[in-house]
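PROTEIN DESIGN WORKSHEET
SECTION A - STRUCTURE
LENGTH: 379
TOKENS:
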């Protein structure tokens, strides 16, 4: 989501000189800390530039960010893609930059109330781009040379709930594939598994141009913790979804977000969190140590000691790394179509990263016979 928005701002502000923009994040306490470090680093690197901060941290922690000596101004998160907020001409939309993969933000905001989350405070209610607007943006990216489109959003699977007739995400994906038969690859960013509609499920299961890669906004493997998080799924919902998809598309790779050390989490709950990695065969894991966010219900719950939170996060990362290593080893001997990036690596459809021969042109999709795994890369 931040990549998509940052690229649009970069294009929109291309004519501006001596301007540095920090597009901030506040999803965790660590993200907020990194935002402050990025601001200080940007000022050191560009001492004479005008430094403007936008994004979620600039919304949620507005007073503190605005008071930093390095910051010259703030732009509201809701206005950051509006040229008027930057005092620039609004007569032309930003041109999509030439990239191998295009990140298209089709949805913003969130209507849910997970007890640990500050995102609704920073981004507001759920809003969806219309099908026509999405198709225009996809077309611009394809014209600029993109070979893969990644649909993203704060709550991607809620796309369409605020549009006439309340279309589902599967409708949008189908419209993109039908409108651009030459698009070789379409990928989804993080999704809420409980919101996957029947049309989207079928596309994930049967459509070869939809990449076999599903990243779930899972958060935990214990039902009681999921309820205290105010999530809308249980463990069995995620397990059943993964099993159904793997039965129909065995090469699909599962990713997931998992939080370690959520308030009231016991050793038994932690064991269930570890176990979900193996049960779902999670090979793309994003592990977050829980951090209390001001104003959230979870911040008022009994907290797990910080050293325990960090230890449990380390346990989860170790389990996820072991599971991923087994998966990567299983791909040795396969031939994979890889979309080349600009750094002599690329991504297979299952989102495994692959080392490519030096000089491979960015944007090419080449067949790679996988012979080894070296430092986490197939080659």
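SECTION B - SEQUENCE
RESIDUE ASSIGNMENT:
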């Amino acid at each position: 989501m931040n990549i998509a928005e940052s690229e649009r701002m970069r294009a929109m502000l291309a004519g501006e000189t001596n301007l540095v923009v920090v597009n901030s994040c506040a999803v965790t306490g660590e993200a907020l800390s990194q935002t402050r470090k990025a601001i200080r680093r940007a000022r050191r690197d560009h001492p004479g530039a005008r430094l403007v901060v936008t994004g979620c941290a600039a919304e949620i922690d507005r007073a503190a960010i605005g008071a930093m000596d390095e910051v010259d101004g703030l732009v509201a998160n809701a206005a950051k893609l509006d040229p008027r907020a930057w005092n620039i001409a609004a007569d032309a939309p930003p041109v999509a930059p030439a990239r191998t993969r295009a990140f298209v933000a089709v949805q913003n905001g969130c209507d849910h109330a997970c007890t640990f989350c500050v995102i609704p405070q920073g981004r507001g209610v759920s809003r969806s781009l219309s099908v026509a607007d999405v198709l225009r943006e996809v077309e611009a990216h394809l014209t600029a040379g993109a070979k893969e489109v990644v649909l993203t959003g704060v709550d991607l699977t809620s796309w369409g709930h605020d549009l006439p007739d309340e279309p589902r995400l599967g409708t949008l994906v189908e419209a993109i594939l039908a409108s651009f038969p030459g698009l070789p690859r379409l990928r989804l960013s993080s999704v809420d598994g409980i919101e996957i509609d029947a049309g989207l499920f079928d596309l994930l299961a049967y459509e070869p141009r939809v990449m076999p890669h599903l990243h779930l906004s899972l958060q935990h493997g214990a039902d009681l913790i999921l309820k205290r998080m105010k999530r809308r799924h249980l463990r069995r919902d995620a397990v059943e979804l993964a099993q159904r998809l793997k039965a129909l598309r065995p090469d699909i790779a599962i990713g997931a977000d998992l939080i370690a050390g959520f308030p009231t989490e016991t050793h038994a709950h932690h064991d269930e969190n570890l176990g979900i990695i193996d049960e779902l065969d999670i090979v793309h894991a994003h592990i977050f140590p829980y951090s209390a966010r001001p104003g959230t219900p979870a911040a008022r719950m009994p907290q797990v000691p910080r050293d325990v939170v960090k230890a449990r996060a380390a346990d989860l990362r170790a389990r996820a790394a072991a599971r991923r290593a087994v998966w990567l080893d299983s791909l040795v001997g396969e031939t994979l179509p890889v979309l080349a990036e600009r750094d002599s690596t690329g991504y297979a459809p299952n989102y495994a990263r692959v080392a490519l021969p030096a000089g491979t042109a960015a944007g090419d999709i080449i067949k790679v016979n996988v012979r080894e795994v070296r430092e986490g890369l197939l080659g």
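SECTION C - NOTES
The mean pLDDT is 94.
The chain has twelve helices and 16 strands.
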